[in-house]
Write a structure and sequence with these properties.
Elements (H helix, E strand, L loop, with lengths): L2 H9 L15 H11 L12 E4 L6 E4 L2 E3 L5 E3 L8 E2 L35 E6 L3 H9 L1 H10 L1 H22 L7 E5 L11 H8 L1 H13 L3 E5 L8 H6 L4 E3 L8 H8 L4 E6 L4 H4 L2 H15 L4 E5 L9 H12 L5
Parallel strand pairs: 1-6, 6-7, 7-8, 8-9, 9-10, 10-11
Antiparallel strand pairs: 2-3, 3-4, 4-5
Helix pairs in contact: 3-4, 3-5, 4-5, 5-7, 11-12
């Protein structure tokens, strides 16, 4: 059974002796492990269940430590070297309807898709910084949250334009038969609860997410949502919207065993291996215990095992290696 077949079995909530897993790395963590293994190509033998295809053009380097995305947003990476900090918000109440959005048909989009040869993995079209994140990156976090109350029509206008942009990208996904799933990354949660609260989420985001997800379902593809933090209060809404896969399934913000018992028949979870505590600060024995607990949870189906986010550079190489070894060499339960 190849990796794609294992994912399909997990999505169908069928029990598996060997469960699918997914380990993603930050650039610094990847470099750390490449040095540890003395192999820059160690990912090719990792055994990941999924392969991600980001349709967006690569960010351009403006100057050292500064990059610019397809919207023109500049990220200052002098402090946060992974994503960066938005240097200047480009959208205001005055230009919210006229600000020029990027043209998804331009050169640079979908380049990674061309000439792809199937590898037996579950292929995922990756759409990051969707409605909420794209909104605050353009408009500012405080402005966006405040205007949900003070100027709701302004927020509706901005989110409708963002929705239209992503629907345009989805139209192009239709032409790539090898894509199995569409991933939407949009962090709504904090360590405790939603950033904007459930009522505002339902008012501004839920209807637009339904439009996005319905477009994916019309292509007979699955829906994968990544949203960090504690979003337990809207988990029934997520299921109602037709989400198939939810990550990062953080044990630091919720009881993941209880969450799987309550919702495991309706959705497939991905993640669960503690990245805030066990991986960076635990012993190898504690990492081994954590990984084996997650594998045991996953054998009944509805769960793809992995860290509760892309692995960060603060995780010791030995702990990363222990997790990789256990997932690659898991014993039948």
């Amino acid at each position: 059974m190849d990796q794609k077949a294992r994912v399909c079995e997990a999505l169908a909530h069928k029990p598996l002796d060997v469960v699918p897993y997914q380990i993603n790395f930050s650039p610094d963590a990847y470099n750390k492990m490449a040095d540890y293994y003395q192999n820059r190509d160690f990912l090719s033998d990792l055994g990941n269940a999924m392969r991600f295809f980001d349709p967006r053009p690569k960010k351009t380097v403006v100057k050292e430590h500064y990059t610019q995305d397809e919207f023109g947003v500049v990220f200052n990476k002098t402090r946060d070297k992974e994503i960066g900090v938005v240097e200047k918000y480009l959208v205001s109440g005055q230009n919210i309807a006229s600000f020029a959005f990027p043209d998804e048909s331009q050169t640079g989009y979908f380049e990674k898709y061309n000439g792809y040869t199937a590898t037996g993995q579950y292929n995922v079209a990756q759409f990051s910084h969707v409605l909420f994140e794209r909104g605050w990156m353009l408009y500012g976090m405080e402005n966006l949250l405040a205007d949900m109350l003070l100027a709701p029509q302004t927020v509706h206008t901005l989110l409708d334009r963002i929705l239209e942009y992503f629907l345009g990208l989805l139209e192009r996904v239709k032409t790539y038969d090898f894509i199995d799933c569409c991933y939407f990354g949009d962090d709504w949660g904090q360590q405790r609860g939603l950033i904007m609260g459930p009522d505002m989420w339902r008012k501004f985001f839920k209807p637009r997410l339904k439009t996005l997800f319905d477009a994916v379902k019309a292509m007979n593809k699955t829906v994968y949502i990544h949203t960090c933090g504690d979003i337990r209060e809207i988990m029934p809404d997520i299921i109602e919207l037709g989400v198939d896969i939810y990550d990062p399934f953080q044990p630091e913000v919720c009881d993941i065993a209880a969450l799987k018992r309550e919702y495991g028949k309706d959705i497939t979870f991905l993640g669960g291996i503690s990245l805030q505590n066990v991986l960076p600060f635990g012993t190898r024995a504690e990492v081994r215990e954590e990984v084996n607990k997650r594998l045991d949870m996953a054998r009944s189906g509805g769960y793809i095992v992995g860290p509760s986010h892309a692995v960060t550079k603060d995780v010791p190489s030995e702990n990363m290696a222990e997790m990789i070894h256990l997932l690659k060499n898991q014993a039948a339960g």
